[in-house]
Amino acid sequence: MKEESQIKQEREQDWRVSLRNGMKAKDRIAIPRVQMPERDARIRSTNNEEVNLGLTETQAMTEAQRCLDCAKPTCMDGCPVGVNIPTFIKYIEVGNFPAAARTLKQTSALPAVCGRVCPQEKQCEAHCIHLKMKSTAVSIGNLERFAADYERNSGCISVPEVAASKGIKVAAVGSGPAGLSFAGDMAKLGYDVSVFEALHEIGGVLKYGIPVFRLPNEIVDVEIDNLRSMGVKFVKNCIVGKTITIDDLKADGFKGVFVASGAGLPRFMNIPGENLAGVMSSNEYLTRVNLMNAASATSDTPVYTGKKVAVIGGGNTAMDSVRTARRLGAERAMIVYRRSEEEMPARREEIHHAKAEGIDFLTLRNPIAYQGDEKGRVTHMQLQVMELGEADASGRRAPREIPGKTECIEVDEVIVSVGVSPNPLIPQSVSGLDVSKWGTIVVDESSMQSSIPMIFAGGDIVRGGATVILAMGDGRRAAKSMNEWLSKK
Amino acid sequence: MNKIISKEIFSENVVQFEVEAPLIAKAHRAGHFVIVRVGEQGERMPLTIASSDVQKGSINLVVQKVGVSSAKLCALNAGDYITDLVGPLGKATHIENFGTVLCACGGVGTAPMLPIVRALKKAGNRVITVLAARSKTLIILEKQMREHSDEVIIMTDDGSYGTKGLVTNGIESVLQRESVDFCVTVGPAIMMKFVGQLTQKYRIPTVASLNTIMVDGTGMCGACRVTVDKKTKFVCVDGPEFDAHQVDFDEMIMRLNAYKDLERGAMQRFAEQPEQDRPAM
Asked: What distance in Å separates the CA atoms of residue B114 and residue B93, rounded to the nearest whole number?
């Protein structure tokens, strides 16, 4: 992360000072927050086009004026990867978009991705000075997306500066956000980085999980190509722990390994009928549609296209699943969630988009059983009606059953999206690795180093289930501390 | 991309490929499987490794044509490339000297049984293999099985080869004449169900190697889940071998049929497409 002094220095550059003084703070605050233009909900719910359209140059420059260029940029405290927020925004304000994009890339390997899928309202934007003044936060996420998209569409993509080669090999296990972010930082430091991926596509959850209407695949590919041009090598179809072991990597001269193998087994609720045909995990459903392209006539992979689809859960993955079902022709696509909408972990924007697309929200409902026909296909779900009681350990009001109150609803497809357990392959294959009772790899929180010094870990394999940006933050921290550890050796 | 070194046709619908895969060959143990994908729009399909050769850096896969994806794979020839191949996956078979072991396999379950038979024999077991199929032309790997078994009993539904009858008839003939310490079964789910019922009657510990639907095959999607001893298990990471007396085979069969209608449609479209219009592989 950037040194505080460096950020101060940048802020004192002449152009920044005169830009800051050119407009009164009062006038900056008076500008209303930009609204992200969206594709029409009726049309977009029938296709796979991206929902958010992106800001125009004028919109972005106006929004950038809202930023007060604070002496103490608290927004940066909210960013897990420490993006230099004021500098990139001020570059946008003066219309120097390529410089804004370059600034983003100093700290983030995937700015176009983060600008789309980060929960900014809980991170950088939650710390924006505007909120203290009863105004709306600067739209940092939308500006990030604008700068990254501008650079990509301009055709001249900058490759971050790479230090002279150290001739030291390091590996990332998994090519999701944590692995990619680690790879980017280590390449910049001059390491020889190889990323090993189990699937046939690079990108992890960015490819198999997040649907293209939220994150188009081309955008992920451009960011991956950018890492390639920094010298990062990618090895597909290689499962560390199965195809090769960490000992093999060590024997092959790798000095450090960052395990970012991600989420694994989907959780189910262990209720009757859950193994009926037509009931599946969101991981299975999204993998079929996103990674395997199963909805296309040219794909060999099949997928159900239910007409009455229930998605169980209230997180971002549940929203992705239900909105996908809608796009694949569901006449009734439902979210079933045991608490109220207020407690849903999904981003407000996703809930808002889902509602606009005609998704039914069955809140305060919990499935207790599924029924099927003679062929074993799911036909009905039994829901227990709930109410909210006292706050629980998570601070959210705990749902409790209203005795005797149940409902029976017709369904022909159920997608269970109630979380995942960490991928068991690495913990199973490395002896001496400290693993928690939940199957996550135990690491030192600040250095991300595991009980085996050469193995670092981050993302869902450590957190059990997190966001893209937290995984990226782990990747950056692991890169920083692995570099320090290797430099001391 | 993995190169096909050679192709051998076992029967009209069953072929064996020898595929370049040095890392998988090195890591392979009996019971492991791979995920194979043919073409950029191809499906991920699990296949048990029949054998491996570390020196040559190759593995053998025996494939039966049952749907579009296996048909596409079977259409490949020596010199062609398999788009994606990943593994070895699953837990290896638990091998020890049990004493007398009965290996009961049917149809395409014969290929994955071969490395298990070989490993059991090497561990010092007396191995009796029951090889079953609908008719003589569908019996495969007989010679290799004979090489590594103390006895091979062939059963055909129509009596065109060996003894007329089902795999269970062959097993029962052994159980009635001598004591057996352990049984392994690989084949269609319905066959493994009846093998399990029979050996349970004789109280012989039995493992079945399950071949369920998978998407990623690496412990992520849960498509392969089965109920074993009333608990949900994932075939790709907890299996593929489970106690045959505890597996809910009826549920497994129902789940295997889940995509039948969609697959039939896809197969029809594939068959009706003229060769030159088929997507490049």
From this structure: 12
